[in-house]
Acid sugar phosphatase
Amino acid sequence: MSKLTADWKAYLIDLDGTLYHGSRMILGADRLISDLHAAGIPYLFVTNNSSRTPAEVAAHLQQMGIPADEEHVCTSAVAAAQYIAEQYPGSKVAPIGENGLLEALREAGIEHDEQDPHVVVQGIDRSFTYEKLTKAARMIASGAHYVLTNPDLQLPSQDGLMPGAGTIAAAIKAASGVEPVVIGKPSGILMKFAIDRLGLHNEEVAVIGDNMLTDMSAGVNAGCGTILVLTGVTTEQNLEQYVASTGIQPDAICRDLDEVRKLVCGKII
């Protein structure tokens, strides 16, 4: 395991697969967050999930016994709303998504237009239909900008994997012929949003996550440090395969969250 880089002052922490699986906390998640808080080390929860608001994400963590408040949560939906407000000021959008995305757009003061929008913004939508696909493809092909909250092809659920926002996006891309601007990991846009929230430089921040394709790639793309924890997608068995396929060697590799806690808090607590 690599030694903690002295320049790391804060941490961007993935959620599903890193701190929990579905509704079950991963061993040591509560201790990690409690110790970061006690040591006064800044951190944010950074998630590609666009279906929940920050308050709902915090409540989900609290229900599992992980200390959390909404001010510590950065979602791809909130980052997408800010991106649209900054890149296309005054634009009206046609949203395809759930409460987390709709609330983020509302809080950003972005108006809806389901007929002739400037932007189509899409996240996970578990009520997605052929009609929605047709409308989205036509609006984008006619010139509307296409913004995607996150490219995840699959989502874990209690009953197994289910299609994610990226799967819906694959259909829209095929039908419209247009590639979206991707906000969530592995894109650097969500990471920049979170780093700006911390008020730090990218080299002062490290990403903690379980997924080489999203978390570690996002950290590298954003110029951050990377701490891989083998609690989710990446395991001891498939680690070499992921290193070979991504070309990424994380700065630190931890078997569990107690190793992460020792790495980031050990010299302080």
Observations:
- The two ends are 19 Å apart (CA to CA).
- The first helix runs from residue 29 to 39.
- The mean pLDDT is 92.
- The chain has two domains: 10-48+185-265, 88-181.
